[in-house]
Design a protein that fits this description.
five-stranded antiparallel sheet; mainly beta; 152 residues; globular
């Protein structure tokens, strides 16, 4: 839920939140999950360090657009995108790290410099989820904060 008693967001709907970056600045971002792409079992095996770990799994890629609305410029290494997670049937998926899990068109947060008011980036996170999942959700929350949840 977005907060106590609120409905989950639909794809494309946005939530707005101030977020304290590791560098100490605290800009306000608009966060909107555009879509979740579900891949194949073969793709999951290619993403896993050990293909046996991907047995019965598929990749789920969350495409999240972040817009810097106001506040100080984020000079480098924004971490706001690290907090989006994919859940399948109520359980968090296994996060795929490294460039293998980042599809084309998605920004590399380690290459973003001087993120200013009005600028947007599409940041993507890939998780392995059970192939037969019935419910897929994306949750964004900072540690101890109230989450935004999108249902797919």
């Amino acid at each position: 839920m977005r907060s106590d008693g609120e409905r989950p967001l639909q794809p494309g709907q946005a939530g707005t939140r101030a977020f304290k970056e590791d560098t100490g600045v605290e800009p306000t971002y608009r966060i909107a999950v555009r879509k979740v792409d579900i891949g194949t079992a073969a793709e999951a095996k290619a993403l896993a360090p050990d293909p046996a770990d991907a047995e019965g799994m598929v990749p789920a890629v969350a495409y999240v657009k972040y817009t810097h609305l106001r506040g100080a410029t984020v000079k480098e290494f924004p971490r706001v995108g690290d907090y989006a997670e994919v859940y399948a049937d109520g359980r968090r998926g296994a996060k795929v790290t490294g460039t293998a899990g980042r599809p084309k068109g998605c920004a590399d947060p380690d290459e973003i410099k001087n993120w200013r008011n009005g600028q947007s980036y599409l940041l993507c996170n890939t998780f392995l989820i059970p192939a037969r999942a019935r419910s897929v959700k994306v949750m964004w929350t900072e540690i101890g904060g109230k989450p935004f949840v999108w249902t797919f």
